[in-house]
Specification:
single chain; 10-stranded mixed sheet; Rossmann fold; 18 helices
């Protein structure tokens, strides 16, 4: 075979040039991918292989990931505009485009990152899974340990504004005797917690994990609080009734009587004989039952939601449409995004950047699908809490999915120590009305302090 190098034809030169460019582009693409999958947290290593160690955690997102996020937002391929003048077909094109413009040009992730790092963040392994949590101890003696659980599409970011009012009540017009030591974990598959690689990580296992976490932190007795999925975990914990649990407070009570649930299932009109509060709750539930497509998808086919991992706009629009329209619980989110009150539900203290902080956390941790899978792992009626006998405090906010009547609440919770109907606030109560929410938690759990 001759070693003579023959001159290349123009066609061959073009082919070689294209091939080289393709290889180079592929290499650059792989490099970009590698950069955007770098760790976004620094976690102290356990010494001596101690899996029970409490390890400090610090958040730092590489700039390459934020650049990639903005690039993806700007590269969105948009669909046609909706054919109606309202939101009946979903998140309106003009709304999401303006939202995305702000996200890609004006939004500053570093602000929430600094807030995160100003708080004591930790990681610990429980039952084979890394669990992230914020742990803020009060300066006041005899503070009550309280674990607070977020929901979907929320995160620990939901709870930021209640930390100081609950741990430092004297700075917010309350008594030192109302202080709490706060533990705020990320649900399995959410935020900085580990993503389960096997089935079984639903509310029941999570509730047991929370008890293990509180005991590991040295709390022999504690209370639990939750809304949305956090309310479900809190209710399950109350049903399990571990001896360490003093009682619970929830703003997502599960109080629907069996006969009401049956009437809703078959689409019956409002049953006769209901009180005004019960009629109002039935009408709210009847409207909600027609707008649950997101929950059905997450509860049956969460793995299909690949768009939540691939497109920031798919993730954002899925969250903003919760549940399938701008009624509750999405109304407060949209009020914050639009800067005006939607359907009579004020955003309260919730801002557009609060909403973006939460969505961006899901994006950076790539937890859209792993979080949705929590619905698939929930194998019971979340609105039925019959048989709970430990002390329970309920705050029935007017903008919740339904405002639980006291009559239904007393049937579901056998040891009801507090029930109140605040004048304002909705599904994301801690986010929307943090001061009012803190007052409700203090009042609700005060009877347990004796």
């Amino acid at each position: 075979m001759s070693d003579t190098i023959l001159p290349q034809s123009p066609a061959r030169r073009r082919f070689v040039g294209i091939a080289a460019a393709t290889i180079a582009a592929g290499s650059l693409s792989q490099l970009a991918f590698a950069e955007t999958t770098q760790a976004i947290t620094d976690v102290a290593q356990a010494t001596g292989g101690d899996t029970t160690a409490i390890r400090p955690l610090r958040v730092h997102v590489p700039e390459s990931q934020l650049i990639d996020l903005r690039r993806r937002i700007k590269a969105t391929r948009w669909p046609d505009r909706e054919t109606v003048t309202d939101d009946s077909q979903g998140v309106q094109l003009a709304v999401i485009q303006e939202f995305s413009r702000h996200w890609s040009t004006d939004y500053d992730w570093r602000k929430v990152e600094r807030k995160l790092n100003s708080l004591p963040n930790f990681m610990t392994e429980i039952d084979g899974l890394d669990i992230h949590f914020i742990h803020v101890r009060s300066k006041h003696e005899n503070a009550m340990p309280l674990i607070v659980t977020h929901g979907w599409p929320g995160s620990i970011i939901e709870q930021f504004k209640i930390i100081d009012p609950l741990t430092n009540p004297t700075a917010h017009g309350a008594s030192a005797s109302d202080a709490f030591h706060l533990v705020i974990p990320s649900l399995p598959g959410y935020g900085f917690s580990g993503k389960p690689t096997t089935t079984g990580w639903g509310p029941e296992r999570t509730a047991r994990t929370w008890v293990a976490l509180m005991k590991r932190l040295g709390y022999a007795k504690f209370a639990s609080q939750g809304g949305d999925l956090g309310g479900i975990v809190t209710n399950v914990m109350a049903k399990q009734a571990p001896p360490e649990l003093l009682g619970i407070h929830t703003n997502f009570p599960a109080t629907i009587p069996p006969e009401i649930a049956k009437a809703l299932q078959v689409g019956d009109p409002t049953p006769p004989g209901l009180s005004d509060d019960e009629k109002h709750a039935y009408e709210q539930l009847n409207a909600l039952s027609k707008r649950r497509a997101y929950a059905q998808e997450q509860g049956t086919r969460p793995q299909t939601l690949y768009g939540l991992a691939d497109s920031p706009i798919a993730l954002a629009s899925w969250f903003l449409d919760h549940p399938d329209g701008y009624g509750q619980p999405a109304a407060a989110l949209m009020s914050a995004v639009l800067g005006r009150t939607v359907n009579g539900h004020s955003a309260g203290d919730l801002t557009r950047d609060d909403v973006l902080d939460d969505i961006t956390l899901y994006w950076l941790t790539n937890t859209g699908v792993s979080a949705a899978r929590f619905y698939w792992e929930s194998h019971f009626n979340p609105y039925n809490a019959t048989g709970i006998s430990i002390p329970v405090a309920i705050s029935a906010f007017p903008g919740e999915n339904y405002q639980a009547p006291r009559s239904w609440t007393e049937r579901a919770y056998l040891n009801l120590i507090y029930y109140n109907r605040p004048e304002k606030g909705g599904h994301f109560a801690a986010w929307e009305q943090p001061q009012l929410f803190a007052e409700e938690v203090r009042a609700g759990l005060r009877p347990l302090r004796t």
